[in-house]
Design brief:
Order of helices and strands: HHHHHEEHHH
Largest sheet: 2 strands, antiparallel
Number of strands: 2
Helix content: over 70%
Low-confidence stretches: none
Strand order of the largest sheet: 1-2
Radius of gyration: 17 Å
Length: 241
C-alpha cells in the first residue's frame, strides 16, 4: 500500500509541474526561477517527511519538535526585531501557537497511517490551493493579510483534498462521515493556520519569517498549515466523533 501511496504522490507532483509550467510560461525568468526553486524545495520536504513517517514514525516526531522549536524562535525573532512592540498581541500569539503546537505534537505520536493520511491531505490542499489560485483565482479573501489567498485557490485546493481523501481512504478505514469530517477539519484548520501566520507577519511588517527554506521563507511560512491541521486531528481523535 505504501508504494501505491508514493506513486500517487509522484503523480500529484507531475500534475503540479504541469500547473507550474502554465503559471510560469508568461512570467519573467527571475520569477519563474523562484517558482521552480519553491517547487523543488517542496518536493524534497514532502519526501523527507513522507519517509520519516513511513520508515520510523519516531523520526517524524523529532521533525515535529524541530518545527515547533524553530517556530517559537521565529515568533520571538520578529518580536525582538520590532523592539518588543505589540506585547499583548505577541503574548496572545504565543499562547495560540503553544496550544496548536501541543496538538501538533500529540498528533505526531499517533498511529502511523492516520499521521500519513493527514500529512498528505494538508500537503495536497496547500499545493493545489496555490496552483488553482494562480491559475483561476480572482477574488482575494484577505488582501491586507494574505494577498495571494483567493476564493478560487481555497475552493480548488479543498476539492482536490476532499477527492484525495477518498483515494487515500485505506489509510483511514473509518465510516465515510468520519473521513469527511476529518478531512474538512484538516482543510479548514490548515487554512486558518496559514492566515494566522500571515497575520502575525503583517503585524510586524515582514513578508517572510526568514530565508531558511529556499523559495518558501521560514519554518512557519512552510509548516504553519501542517501545525494547525495536525492540531485538528488531535482534537478530532480526542473528541472521538
Amino acid at each position: 500500500m505504501i508504494y501505491t501511496i508514493y506513486y500517487i504522490i509522484i503523480t500529484y507532483f507531475l500534475l503540479a509541474a504541469i500547473g507550474f509550467y502554465f503559471i510560469n510560461k508568461n512570467k519573467t525568468s527571475d520569477i519563474a526561477k523562484k517558482s521552480w526553486i519553491k517547487y523543488g524545495s517542496y518536493f524534497i520536504i514532502i519526501n523527507l517527511l513522507f519517509f520519516s513517517i513511513v520508515i520510523n514514525s519516531i523520526v517524524f516526531r523529532y521533525f515535529s519538535l524541530l518545527i515547533i522549536v524553530v517556530g517559537i524562535i521565529e515568533l520571538l525573532v520578529l518580536f525582538v526585531q520590532a523592539r518588543y512592540a505589540k506585547k499583548k498581541f505577541f503574548l496572545l500569539s504565543l499562547i495560540v501557537f503553544a496550544a496548536s503546537s501541543l496538538g501538533f505534537y500529540l498528533f505526531s505520536g499517533m498511529e502511523k497511517y492516520i499521521v500519513l493520511f493527514s500529512f498528505l491531505i494538508v500537503s495536497i490542499f496547500d499545493s493545489f490551493s496555490q496552483i488553482s489560485g494562480q491559475l483561476w483565482g480572482q477574488k482575494k479573501l484577505f488582501p491586507k493579510i494574505s494577498p495571494n489567498k483567493t476564493m478560487g485557490g481555497f475552493i480548488g485546493g479543498a476539492i482536490v483534498a476532499i477527492l484525495s481523501a477518498l483515494l487515500l481512504q485505506n489509510l483511514y478505514p473509518e465510516p465515510t462521515y468520519k473521513l469527511f469530517l476529518l478531512t474538512i477539519g484538516i482543510v479548514v484548520f490548515a487554512f486558518l493556520g496559514d492566515i494566522a501566520s500571515s497575520y502575525y507577519k503583517r503585524k510586524y511588517r515582514v513578508k517572510d519569517y526568514n530565508n531558511l527554506i529556499p523559495g518558501h521563507g521560514g519554518f512557519l511560512d512552510r509548516f504553519d498549515s501542517l501545525i494547525a491541521g495536525g492540531a485538528w486531528v488531535a482534537i478530532f481523535q480526542f473528541i472521538n466523533f
